[in-house]
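Input (structure):
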């Protein structure tokens, strides 16, 4: 179906069911050594849908979904859609306080989760459904499609994004919005049942929506890499080649890394999609697949503009963000919401079929950002005010310039600095606070918080305070204590005068001696990863140049070296070698209690 047709009277769950009817034994999803066919996926989702219907789920109700990337995640999302409800994806690492806020704000009567995550999902106001424990009872349930269906105007999913007022806001995406994305994607990239795609993004990142439904509605197979593979560029490249992946999405930092390493000429990969942050480089001429750069706020259903990135040549500007996708329109407007001339910087507004319903329970904010579209002939048409500054080139492609406000993107997640500042201000010993995104090293963006404290505030205690309230991607890599914030002549915070976090490596920190065998080994691991000669036990991993991609790779190497699994949040809680070593030692000691003396000696040798 062409995305230019508006006659779709079909939804994603119906298209998946049609695939299950025509190619029941075709592979739908693969995760490690687990595999599920279209028939199994459809039947498991139908059983879940009947269960949810019996519990009261229906059109425009919202069901929480907190699962790791897995076959169960796909079954859960599809089952919720088949029940006629909307799914609310929640990152399993999300702090319990934030998880509870989202469920309460969305009025979710049920949270679907797994046995390992269930303790974090408990709370008042919603029931917890542990999918692994319910498998037996669901296995004997009704596997036929439930009666009734949602309309295109009903909600398909709700995703929460950072809010400038200090509270996250839920973006409401309808089935019509989702179908516009699906139809454009299949048409633009010639997706067929022979394709093998990937699911790499965090479940709470809206790119995960894009990684599933355009492929499962086309009869293609979706492959889910192991967490270790997902964060290691070389492992990921080898996995993509070995699995015969034909199309993949990768967040911008990972895509930039994979462009710089060698690829076998016979790779089956034909398209690498990227997005979520500004692309800083062009692909080499030797890259054996097409690179497509994509842009889009959550409020316009994942992707609003898209375009191929040409091979490196005599380019003097950064790669563009492409042109509007089919079904969407873009406008570059001035402060009076009038079109600017080609080549002039203006604010980007997006209209068309991808524009979301609005923010859940936030009518005033919806009215501020979702405006009547004066350039459309359709009654009731709206456009979304992005806050992004762009410039239209003579060839029709758009160049991203920056923001009109303090919103930033880290690891593909949109972050309102105001939400971080509001959370900092909640601490009773913080008198003033400001957060910024610094890029002291090109291409390596990090969050830094500056606070004026009331003594005796300990910065590590403040970090822990933030970790209990914010997702890890919103926790500043560094917190700087100042006697006062620098001000402009107008009395506003002078962000440009804020000092860079202290990175002087000439003192004792960088020359400190490892105190234990674990510290000594970890110092070597960190130094090799960061490509520095020496690392002191008390130096901050992030201030040494570490970022989210390197942090994930460090966790992989810790597991390989010490046999210890650490969550990513550990690095935010304990960003020094000494702190990480202490946690490794604690886990090893717990493990030693169940080991023989010989096993323990072999481990520590």
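Output (sequence):
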């Amino acid at each position: 179906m062409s995305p230019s047709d508006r006659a779709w009277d079909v939804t994603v769950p119906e298209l998946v069911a049609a695939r299950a009817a025509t190619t029941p034994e075709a592979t739908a999803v693969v995760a490690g050594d687990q595999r599920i066919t279209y028939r199994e996926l459809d039947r498991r989702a139908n059983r879940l849908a009947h269960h949810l219907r019996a519990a009261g789920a229906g059109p425009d109700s919202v069901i929480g979904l907190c699962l790791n990337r897995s076959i169960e995640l796909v079954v859960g999302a599809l089952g919720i859609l088949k029940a006629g409800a909307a799914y609310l994806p929640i990152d399993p690492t999300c702090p319990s306080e934030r998880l509870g806020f989202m469920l309460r704000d969305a009025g979710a009567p049920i949270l679907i989760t797994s046995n390992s995550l269930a303790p974090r999902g408990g709370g008042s106001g919603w029931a917890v459904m542990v999918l692994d424990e319910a498998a037996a009872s669901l296995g004997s349930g009704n596997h036929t499609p439930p009666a009734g269906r949602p309309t295109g105007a009903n909600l398909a999913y709700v995703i929460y994004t950072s809010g400038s007022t200090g509270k996250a806001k839920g973006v409401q995406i309808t089935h019509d919005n989702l179908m516009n994305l699906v139809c454009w994607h299949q048409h633009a990239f010639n997706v067929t049942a022979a394709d093998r795609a990937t699911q790499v993004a965090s479940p709470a990142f809206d790119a995960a929506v894009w990684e599933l439904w355009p492929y499962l509605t086309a009869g293609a197979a979706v492959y889910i890499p192991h967490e270790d593979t997902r964060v290691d560029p070389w492992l990921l490249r080898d996995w993509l080649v070995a699995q015969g992946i034909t199309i993949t999405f990768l967040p911008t930092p990972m895509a930039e890394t994979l462009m710089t390493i060698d690829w076998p000429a016979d790779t089956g990969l034909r398209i690498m999609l990227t997005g979520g942050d500004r692309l800083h480089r062009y692909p080499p001429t030797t890259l054996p697949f097409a690179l497509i750069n994509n842009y889009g706020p959550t409020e316009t259903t994942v992707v609003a503009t898209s375009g191929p990135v040409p091979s490196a040549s005599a380019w003097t500007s950064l790669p563009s963000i492409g042109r509007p996708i089919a079904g969407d329109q873009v406008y570059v407007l001035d402060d009076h919401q009038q079109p600017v001339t080609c080549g002039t910087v203006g604010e980007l507004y997006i209209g068309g079929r991808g524009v979301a319903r609005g923010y859940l329970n936030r009518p005033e904010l919806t009215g501020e950002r979702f405006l009547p579209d004066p350039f459309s002939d359709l009654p009731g048409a709206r456009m979304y005010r992005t806050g992004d500054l762009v410039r239209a080139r003579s060839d029709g492609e758009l160049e991203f310039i920056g923001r009109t406000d303090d919103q930033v993107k880290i690891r593909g997640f949109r972050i309102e600095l105001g939400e971080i500042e509001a959370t900092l201000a909640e601490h009773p010993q913080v008198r003033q606070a400001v957060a910024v995104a610094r890029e002291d090293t090109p291409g390596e963006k990090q969050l830094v918080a500056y606070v004026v404290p009331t003594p005796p505030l300990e910065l590590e205690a403040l970090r822990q305070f933030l970790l209990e309230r914010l997702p890890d991607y919103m926790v500043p890599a560094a917190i700087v204590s100042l006697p006062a914030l620098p001000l402009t002549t107008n009395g506003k915070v002078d962000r440009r005068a804020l000092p860079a976090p202290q990175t002087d490596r000439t003192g004792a920190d960088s020359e400190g001696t490892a105190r234990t065998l674990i510290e000594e080994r970890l110092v070597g691991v960190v130094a090799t990863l960061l490509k520095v000669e020496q690392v002191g036990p008390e130096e901050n991993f992030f201030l040494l140049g570490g970022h989210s991609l390197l942090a994930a790779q460090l966790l992989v190497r810790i597991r390989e070296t010490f046999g210890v699994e650490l969550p990513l949040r550990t690095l935010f809680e304990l960003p020094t070698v000494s702190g990480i070593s202490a946690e490794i030692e604690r886990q090893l000691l717990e493990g030693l209690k169940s080991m023989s003396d010989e096993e323990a000696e072999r481990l520590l040798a």
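Notes: Residues 38-54 form the longest helix (17 residues). Residues 406 and 444 are 18 Å apart (CA to CA).
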